[in-house]
Amino acid sequence: MLTILFDGIAYGMLLFILAVGLAVTMGLMNFINLAHGAFAMAGGYITVLLMQRLDVPFLVCLPLAFIGAALLGAVLERTLYRPLYHKPHLDQVLFSIGLTFMAVAATDYFMGSTQQIIQLPSFLRGRTELGSGNWILGMGHYRLFIIAVCAALTVALQLVLARTRFGSRLRASVDDQRVAAGLGINVNVVFLTTFAFGSGLAGLGGALGAEVLGLDPIFPLKFMIYFLIVVAVGGTSSITGPLLAALLLGIADVSGKYYIPKLGAFIVYCLMILILVWRPQGLFVRRGGRP
Amino acid sequence: MKSESRFQQSPSPAQQSLLSSRRWRPWEPLLWLAAFALPLLLPAHAFIVNEIAIVALFAISLDMVLGYTGIVSLGHAAFFGMGAYTAALFAKHVMPDPIVGLAVGIAAATVLGAIFSLTIQRGSDLTRLMVTLGAALILLELANKLDWLTGGADGLQGVVMGPLLGRFEFDLSGRTAAWYSLTLLLVLFFLARRLVNSPLGATLKAIRDNRLRAMAIGIPVGSRLSVSYTVAAAMAGAAGALQAQTTGFASLDVFEFQRSADVMLILVVGGTGWLYGGVAGAIVFKLMQDFLSAITPQYWTFWLGLFLVVLVLVGRERLIRPWTWFANGRKT
Amino acid sequence: MNAIASSQTVLRATGLVKRFGGIMATSHVSLQLQKGARHALIGPNGAGKTTLVNLLTGVLDASEGQIALEGHDITHLSPHQRVRRGLVRTFQINQLFDSLTPLETLALTVSLDQGVGAKWWQPLGARRAVAERCDQLLEQFHLTSVKDQPTRVLAYGKRRLLEIAIALACEPRVLLLDEPVAGVPAGEREELLRTVANLPAEVSVLLI
In this predicted complex, what is the ipTM? Predict the structure, then answer.
């Protein structure tokens, strides 16, 4: 059981890193971006290509995946997303679905539709077991690595938001865009940087997650619902909300699939609907936050 | 007393304006006549006429929630699929009569719609999106897991329909199917038209345009949302039932996200808030799909995606479609 | 003011409190509105006037306090239920239905008031009583010339008139007018204020 918990936490942290960019951009730009998963997929495929074609070591690929996805995000934000911020949500949904379809089909065309396999470096394979009997905690080293990296990133994110000037500009823009602009904050730059950063994180998550979640052209469609769950349940007014939501989702999904495999993901969806009906603004939102 | 005064006194100016904008235009009966004549005139294409009618009905059902009430739903396929599987199972295990099966399929979808309508009443656009998406995904999972009932990934096969009204066999030419679907489309279109032109329809449009003001004039927003969603579910269920009955087959793709996304695209292309939008979009989409699939069978979703991106960037309102401009002038 | 009817209190609020997190936007406000009265609620920007209106109409839930309309406790009624009982408001920033015409908007509102808002088979204009009331309101608010244009294309002055006309179409017993002449050109203000002054005597008006 502890192993399930451990695996669930690893899964949850991974989901958090994947989805945090989406949560922040949704809170910041009020833009429903269903194509977020495409950036994660980009990071994953960049890693695969670098490892397979250029023999780049796995650990080096990770920051490169981040940078690649971030660049892609920056370019797309400036060119395609920016004109659409004030459009109705329906238009944003249609646009991002269209972008996703394009990404999926293009990836299928160029990379084929099979699952991509990543060869992990040998020190990340393997497993340590603690405890005995019912309380065995089996920790796969790779999952430990994921937890460590994601935890470090989370702490870094909190610090950036709370302690840096950029962080306060970001928080101001989320709270009230017009006032922030009136105070001289360059909202466009904040948007661009945040979007790029969020996409970069998604790319990193895609690279990290390729081994655990699988990587194929339909990745954005398969996992879109999970990212959206993290954002909808966790709320967009903080990053601890999505973190908790992601952990909850990760643990629920892993335990659900283990204990009641017949129902699998069904439990997660039902849980999500119940939560959203009970608390439409998300589970972890401050009262009085922007709806 | 009301009907007396309508005939004895001349209509007030307000009445004249309101009623005239809701009358049937002269081109409409012609359009429907032409549609019904198609299976006769182009017998080789009867099947595609059938498909287009079904898709149009599905799109109109989405228009009810999206175009007229303003609910962004990404899971409308849930009701389509519910209607399809119920009708298929009914024909296979209970009785092969099409009309009864259709009624059962519609009933099942309606009940499902009423239940799910409780989930869409509160929350932001994102919440509603999630909840509707989740609904469709739950049904997909259920259909997948309950494979002893639904045939799972292989789908439900061997659905043989009895003759329509006891007389018209569903033959290989597809003509019976086409006329069956077209008739149902016309009937439901007519009912939908009465609904959107009625006071109830006006309350839905009010909710779409300004929910705050809708509340402030006494509209019970929650229950109206439920009504709209349930009616839309019933219509989608009808479309699904037709699909299962005319193709003799029901598979998991009736619940898939692709289907919900496609119908949204169809409606947007044809124009929301205008019942003929579903029809126009269905015709364009089906013809485009046939055309593009013949050229790039595997990657046609790329072009679909590109089309969507361009459509939104250019602006949905500026789509070059004369009849969309026409409808904008007097939006029903 | 009608001295004979004014012995009745139509709207009474007691001890209304509204807190947003740590901020107390409304602090123990009580008010009484007599039948047929014409009152004004004045205060500087940010004093919480619109919050008070939102509390009275149910858009916001009160943290504490009671509200009674014509003797009935409406503290826990939803906004649309309060409207049905005759508590109607207008908005400082026009809240209109952009895709509907003024005629359709008024027809809808009158239909709701006359209890036929849920009819789905008959067209919106079928009832004579509804149509006649619409004609009256359009006349009264000088909207007849624009009655068939979608609201989004109307000039600001007309939109403001429609804003008030909608409230009147609800046949209010208590009318809360939130800055009715805000943004209205000077020439049309007189007209608007005269219309407000000419409201039926039984209607109680609170101007904000």
Answer: 0.89
